[in-house]
């Protein structure tokens, strides 16, 4: 097993099966992108995404991955395993692939963090023997300033130690937030610039702002676990529930209008996001989106003390609704 940052610095040859586990989203996404680039270099030009749930049919998944392609030289299967536990049938499928992988195909499995017991399981051991296991772990707080300095160098920036310490403090361990902040600094000051405390102080907002954007993304993708985790972090950081109500209202209104048949372009949704919003809008019918919006109004009244109830508990419920989960 190798850490994600080690793999990103020096990618190993792409094996027939890869497991990426961990709960650090920036590392997960960077490894996901790097593996796909390697697959394309191998001329595995057809990428097929599979999301596994509790009721997934592993026989159907096995048939799908073994059927080959009539339209490309090879296939790259990207399998998302949110809970990290494939069950008996899934474990057998992974062991079979590790022992006898199909020709011209690669299986990349992405899961949340696996504990010590899970890492010792037969299916993980089989993957490690036949392929690669990558751990997308968080950067320890003491190492985060140095990580920021290294990432700044990749953007052509020189980040002073004091600036790195301030940036690490503001993002509170969120690598995605740190990476986005460095992109902003690079765009604003240009390659070759030296970034000190004033530049970070003036351009990098605190963690709560990033968490709001992260919540919106999780809702868009229907990632209920990530959305609820982000909501909890916002509560812990003292974020006013009014901001969250505003964000949810904006998103629900967009989904409602799309469900009614309005075009994403007319709603001024970014072109790169239009397909994702259209897919999200199909989780509920227009009547249920309208009901969710009315429920959000009740939550706003709870937050203002006009109505009885805990707004944070109610926000958990509406997040489940937006993600298409039935309570």
Automatic annotation (TrEMBL):
Single Gene Ontology MF annotation: DNA binding
GO biological process, one term: DNA-templated DNA replication
Gene3D superfamilies: 1.10.8.60, 1.20.272.10, P-loop containing nucleotide triphosphate hydrolases
Claim: Nucleotidyltransferase is one of the keywords in the record: yes
Catalytic activity: DNA(n) + a 2'-deoxyribonucleoside 5'-triphosphate = DNA(n+1) + diphosphate
InterPro entries named among the record's database cross-references: DNA_pol3_clamp-load_cplx_C (IPR008921), DNA_polIII_delta (IPR005790), P-loop_NTPase (IPR027417)
This protein's GO CC annotations: DNA polymerase III complex
PANTHER family linked: DNA POLYMERASE III SUBUNIT DELTA (PTHR34388)
Family: Belongs to the DNA polymerase HolA subunit family.
Protein name: DNA polymerase III subunit delta
Native source species: Sulfurivirga caldicuralii
